[in-house]
């Protein structure tokens, strides 16, 4: 017995197979080459086949006209010869002709017309019947005077020769060539029936000069299409091989580009492929070398800057030890620790390594109280409404995010009113931190763009030309890394408001 997982999972590969095949055909370079080659060859073969078929159709039409004239001429002669004989001698003549080897026509006299089923779906057969009928009526005036005349091109299989039900296949072999009525390849017979006297029907049946001329119109058969399909398959196979050889260097190029994106230093690619591919690989190798030199120079530069910054930080730490006020000394140490962490973080960012700051419970209300106290010491009016709440996250990253929000609020709302900071637990169990200023706000159309890197609004750029538009994007990234959410909005009573929702500790 299969498990539920097997029952529910087994159709997935079947559903995914058409998607992978469609992706290969329409998205990959190999698939598009195959489609182009297959479509082009199929179109060429279709046009060639249609032109060829048109020529064959014209030839068969000409053969049909000649065959109709030939058979009609023979039938006219036979009808005239039989009509000139007295009715009593006609059977004797027919019997004598059969004994001597027969004629090109099978001739019978019947007391009624024999039902004959014409060949279905053959336009050329209908044209042949029409032309034979017209020539008979034109050459035999007695048939044109209302005498019934029936002409049909029919299959010899099951063809009746008398109203009693006698079949063509029942006749002696000396009368009919057996190969013409063989089931595997029967030749069509033209049957002409005319009422020569009331109650007496002349039955003439004969094959055409080329019994199998209609087979030429059976053009789109497996015998004709198989070589073309094999040619298409061979062309597609060769195309796949050629395109794979062309795209193999491109695959290596894309893999090397992905490794460069992950800051992995791959070896220079081997230059191979067509001229265009070789030029692309050479350009990529040159670009890779320039990037490697640039990254090395940048790391050395920031390493020097980090070293130079740590020296004054160390001096400040030593001088802070001389302070008599322990509380002030602790605040100095805390600020210097944050500054030292920022220097290390900047160096880590340049090296593109993860910042391994440990997550820990953080009393967010104490963090806000310290930030608000520092802002007030700087002369900025800030109001705080807090309660003892704890969040779980990276302390330095969260301080940086909230510090960016306070800096923005104090800068853009300066002189309009105090910055309002509040916090509390929301209905989802998250800790909500709200920062509101009383500045001009943000155009509604620009709210959706806030938080994207390098996004600066017109009034902000006019007030601070040196900004880069990264503050709110850093806030969004830090909050998202903690599993929280950020909401920007214009406050109904004026000003701009940012709300952070952080997971409780």
Automatic annotation (TrEMBL):
<dbReference type="Pfam" id="PF00512">
    <property type="entry name" value="HisKA"/>
</dbReference>
<dbReference type="GO" id="GO:0005524">
    <property type="term" value="F:ATP binding"/>
</dbReference>
<dbReference type="InterPro" id="IPR050980">
    <property type="entry name" value="2C_sensor_his_kinase"/>
</dbReference>
<dbReference type="InterPro" id="IPR003661">
    <property type="entry name" value="HisK_dim/P_dom"/>
</dbReference>
<keyword id="KW-0812">Transmembrane</keyword>
<feature type="domain" description="Histidine kinase">
    <location>
        <begin position="304"/>
        <end position="505"/>
    </location>
</feature>
<keyword id="KW-1133">Transmembrane helix</keyword>
<dbReference type="InterPro" id="IPR003660">
    <property type="entry name" value="HAMP_dom"/>
</dbReference>
<keyword id="KW-0472">Membrane</keyword>
<dbReference type="InterPro" id="IPR036097">
    <property type="entry name" value="HisK_dim/P_sf"/>
</dbReference>
<dbReference type="Pfam" id="PF02518">
    <property type="entry name" value="HATPase_c"/>
</dbReference>
<feature type="transmembrane region" description="Helical">
    <location>
        <begin position="229"/>
        <end position="247"/>
    </location>
</feature>
<feature type="domain" description="HAMP">
    <location>
        <begin position="244"/>
        <end position="296"/>
    </location>
</feature>
<dbReference type="InterPro" id="IPR036890">
    <property type="entry name" value="HATPase_C_sf"/>
</dbReference>
<keyword id="KW-0997">Cell inner membrane</keyword>
<keyword id="KW-0597">Phosphoprotein</keyword>
<dbReference type="InterPro" id="IPR004358">
    <property type="entry name" value="Sig_transdc_His_kin-like_C"/>
</dbReference>
<keyword id="KW-0902">Two-component regulatory system</keyword>
<keyword id="KW-0418">Kinase</keyword>
<keyword id="KW-0547">Nucleotide-binding</keyword>
<protein>
    <recommendedName>
        <fullName>histidine kinase</fullName>
        <ecNumber>2.7.13.3</ecNumber>
    </recommendedName>
</protein>
<feature type="transmembrane region" description="Helical">
    <location>
        <begin position="33"/>
        <end position="53"/>
    </location>
</feature>
<keyword id="KW-0808">Transferase</keyword>
<keyword id="KW-1003">Cell membrane</keyword>
<dbReference type="Pfam" id="PF00672">
    <property type="entry name" value="HAMP"/>
</dbReference>
<dbReference type="InterPro" id="IPR005467">
    <property type="entry name" value="His_kinase_dom"/>
</dbReference>
<keyword id="KW-0067">ATP-binding</keyword>
<dbReference type="InterPro" id="IPR003594">
    <property type="entry name" value="HATPase_dom"/>
</dbReference>
């Amino acid at each position: 017995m299969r498990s539920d997982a097997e029952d529910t999972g087994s159709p997935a590969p079947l559903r995914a197979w058409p998607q992978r095949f469609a992706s290969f055909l329409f998205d990959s370079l190999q698939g598009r080459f195959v489609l182009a080659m297959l479509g082009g060859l199929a179109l060429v073969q279709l046009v060639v086949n249609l032109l060829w078929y048109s020529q064959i159709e014209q030839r068969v039409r000409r053969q049909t006209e000649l065959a109709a004239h030939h058979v009609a001429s023979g039938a006219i002669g036979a009808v005239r010869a039989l009509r000139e004989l007295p009715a009593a001698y006609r059977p004797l003549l027919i019997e004598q002709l059969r004994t001597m080897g027969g004629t090109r026509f099978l001739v019978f006299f019947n007391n009624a017309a024999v039902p004959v089923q014409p060949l279905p779906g053959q336009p050329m057969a209908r044209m042949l019947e029409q032309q034979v009928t017209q020539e008979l009526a034109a050459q035999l005036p007695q048939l044109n005077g209302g005498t019934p005349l029936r002409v049909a091109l029919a299959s010899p299989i099951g063809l009746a020769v008398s109203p009693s039900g006698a079949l063509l296949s029942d006749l002696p072999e000396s009368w009919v060539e057996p190969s013409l009525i063989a089931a595997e390849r029967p030749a069509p017979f033209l049957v002409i029936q005319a009422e020569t006297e009331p109650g007496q029907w002349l039955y003439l049946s004969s094959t055409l000069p080329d019994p199998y001329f209609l087979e030429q119109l059976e053009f789109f058969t497996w015998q004709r299409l198989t070589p073309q399909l094999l040619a298409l398959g061979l062309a597609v196979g060769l195309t796949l091989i050629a395109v794979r050889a062309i795209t193999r260097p491109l695959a290596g190029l894309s893999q090397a580009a992905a490794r460069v994106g992950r800051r992995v230093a791959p070896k220079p690619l081997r230059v191979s492929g067509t001229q265009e591919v070789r030029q692309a690989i050479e350009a990529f190798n040159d670009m890779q070398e320039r990037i490697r030199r640039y990254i090395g120079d940048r790391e050395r530069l920031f390493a020097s800057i980090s070293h130079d910054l740590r020296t004054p930080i160390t001096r400040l730490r030593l001088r802070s030890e001389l302070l008599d006020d322990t509380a002030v000394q602790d605040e100095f140490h805390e600020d210097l620790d944050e500054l030292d962490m920022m220097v290390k973080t900047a160096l880590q960012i340049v090296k593109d390594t993860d910042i391994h700051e440990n997550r820990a419970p953080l009393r967010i209300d104490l963090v806000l109280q310290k930030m608000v106290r520092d802002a007030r010491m700087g002369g900025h009016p800030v109001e705080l409404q807090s309660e003892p709440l704890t969040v779980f996250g990276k302390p330095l990253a969260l301080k940086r995010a909230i510090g960016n929000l306070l800096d923005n609020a104090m800068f853009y709302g300066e002189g309009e009113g105090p910055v309002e900071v509040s916090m509390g637990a929301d209905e989802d169990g998250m800790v909500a931190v709200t920062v509101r200023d009383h500045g001009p706000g943000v155009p509604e159309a620009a709210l959706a763009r806030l938080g994207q890197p390098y996004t600066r609004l017109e009034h902000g750029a006019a007030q601070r030309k040196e900004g880069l538009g990264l503050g709110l994007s850093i806030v969004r990234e830090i909050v998202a890394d903690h599993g929280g959410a950020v909401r920007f909005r214009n406050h109904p009573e004026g000003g701009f408001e940012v709300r952070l929702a952080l997971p409780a500790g």
